[in-house]
Amino acid sequence: MSKIAKLFKGSSSSSSSSSPKSKHHRSRGGPSPQEAIHKLRETEEMLTKKQDYLEKRIEQELLIAKKNGTKNKRAALQALKRKKRLEQQLTQIDGTLSTIEFQREALENSHTNTEVLKNMGFAAKAMKKVHENMDVDKIDDLMQDITEQQDVAREISDAISGPFGETFDEDELLAELEELEQQELEDSMKSMGGLPSVPSSKLPSARPSHRATTKKRVEDDDDMRMLASWGT
């Protein structure tokens, strides 16, 4: 049994076995956390109202002192004395409110922690009850059975989705297809009369270049000068 369960087992058993008389006696012995927090909040509200009242009284006494400052010095001094006493009360109330606020927050936190621990104890008991009917070995066997069944289902799926009937070599089919394409190309060329024949006659030579033409012209000029020299 966990520590949390032990912590709340004694409290729950004692509360269940107690009689209404004992419960009534316990409530008379001390207030519950909710009651104490409620009382502290009421006290805070009362002191806050008291603060507002004192602050207004202080303002009034200050106005009286200012009003009678030059006319009635005695009345002005009495007003200032009352103001001082009111300020002392206001300071005391501020300190009391701080103490009550701190006490209330501590009580609220304690009550919250108690409720959290109580709920955690209930959750621990519920989890323990759930796990009572669970066996780790049985869980391992179950997971193994699930894995085996998944493997069987995968094998069945592979068998169903596999090729059915005769199988052929894909390379042989591609080679045969290539032969058919080549045969179709040859038949198409034959139907068109075959390839065009190569011409038998010599093709005309290309146009003489500018350099060759210039050389021929120079030779002709030399011949004409030679004939002229013979005639003279």
From TrEMBL:
Q: Does the keyword Cytoplasm apply?
A: yes
Reading the lineage from the top rank, the first entry is Eukaryota
The cellular component terms of Gene Ontology attached to this UniProt record, alphabetical and capped at eight, are: cytoplasmic side of plasma membrane; cytosol; ESCRT III complex; late endosome membrane; multivesicular body
Annotated InterPro entries: Snf7_fam
Transport among keywords: yes
GO terms of biological process kind: cilium assembly; late endosome to vacuole transport via multivesicular body sorting pathway; protein transport; vesicle budding from membrane
Pfam families, sorted:
Snf7 (PF03357)
Keywords (alphabetical) are: Coiled coil, Cytoplasm, Endosome, Membrane, Protein transport, Transport
Instruction: Tell me how this protein sits in the membrane.
Output: Peripheral membrane protein
Query: Low complexity compositional bias: what residue ranges?
Result: 11-20
Its annotated compartments are: Cytoplasm, Cytosol; Late endosome membrane
The record's region (Disordered) falls at 1-37, 182-232
User: Where are the membrane-spanning stretches?
Assistant: none
Q: Which Gene3D superfamilies match?
A: 6.10.250.1710, ESAT-6-like (1.10.287.1060)
Q: Which family does it belong to?
A: Belongs to the SNF7 family.
Its name, as the record gives it, is Charged multivesicular body protein 4C
Q: Which gene encodes it?
A: chmp4c
